[in-house]
Protein 1
Amino acid sequence: MNRPVHGLAYAKINLTLEVSGKRADGYHELTSVMQTVSLADDLWLEPAAELSLRCDVTELAGDDNLVVRAARALGCGGRFVLRKRIPAAAGLGGGSSDAALALRLLNAAFELRLSPAELLDAATCIGSDVPFFLHCGSALVQGRGELVQPLPDLPVRWLVLLNPGVPLSTARVFQELRPEEYVAPPNTRAWLEPGAGASGQTPQLTNTLEAPAKRLEPAIQDCLLRLRTAGSTAVLLSGSGPTVYGLASGEAEAQRIAGQTGGIAVRFVGRREALAITADSP
Ligand code: C5P
């Protein structure tokens, strides 16, 4: 490797997230349509024999950062610089997106020529959301998160992300989920139709984890109400939360709702834009 490389690690939302049961390995069986959105961390990788990570959020720069775990999974060195914008433990997949981008940057920079199956193996070992971020854009995600079927990019939608500002552990939310809340069979199909989600014809948003997450963190309900009161027609918890989002009719409406609620206006980001890697230094 002789040149520093850079990519943007985009956040995701779950347009649907249906949990149909608990598996023998302790994980839960999911069906989810995931979508990358335009809130992103910057990640640079510079040539170096030793592995290191510098992060502007110092408490995230430790050895348990998923970027470090990604490099260890491939047995690689390199000097990573991470600039965080996606809040941690927020249901937006920030750490998982950083990890998947780290795998792709290492594969490109060291010319490892890893096959999709080898990248998927490494991603699955790091965390259940990491495989989705190898594809980004819109995708149907199943299993515990490792079965990713990329979908054609959905029509671009604007939305507002609202974060209550408290972290929520994914493991705790899954523990709080009751068997009677499982959804079987899953109902995600409407999002797989061509043109689904264009403004004016939004299939139902659904998230099995919303009820247990609300029981653990009442601030989630306040955030959902704030978005609805500000004029968002469809609101939902993203992933295991606590970030919620509300769809808007366009950019101006999203900016207005964001201004009124203290949220962030973002848009869907398609696969090609989300997977871009460039030669660049921090
Ligand atoms: O895979 P990851 O480490 O990100 O998952 C965090 C926790 O969330 C797991 O330890 C598990 O408790 C829960 N989980 C689950 N079923 C999934 C994904 C995550 O129960 N499909």
Protein 2
Amino acid sequence: MARMSGRPQIALIGFMGSGKTTVGALLALELGYTFLDLDHALAERAGMSIPEIFAREGEAGFRRRERSLLLELGDQPGRVLATGGGIVLEPENVAFLRRHGLVVALTADLPEILARIGGGEGRPLLRGPDPMSAAAALWSAREPLYRGAADLIVDTKGLAPPEVARKIADWYRMARREDGSGA
Ligand code: S3P
């Protein structure tokens, strides 16, 4: 598969709390790839935290920034890219990530995700009187999008981040061998 050749970018997608940033950094180390967290880069570029961007510009403003930064920075071989949980809302974002590399979805079950997210600190979409119901509604809407976008779906339930990173690295190496793209 053409997307396997060279040192393809590996994008991590998944719900808030699925571990994209932590796992992504470990995976990059394991593969000798660079690492970029898109939300981190976005906040740095904006000179504002993600909650500040939501407060000032609304979700629409955040999504515009997310999309344009993805297009600007989102295509680099030999890199692991951790994305924000809403990246899959825009079909063009998904098409872009898939065109430029492999897409790995991290998942777990909702109770485990809720336990990891806690009160939704730093996550503007979960602000409000009932963060748990807000998360559950988003979860139902988003899960099919993550699944539909992914080359690989990793169930992280009960796994520590290094174990998740190892699983992805093993899959990646095997897929490349099978594809004849080298280890
Ligand atoms: C969002 C997830 C957040 C961040 C923003 C919106 C979402 O990233 O991009 O708050 O829509 O799910 P994490 O998935 O890293 O929490």
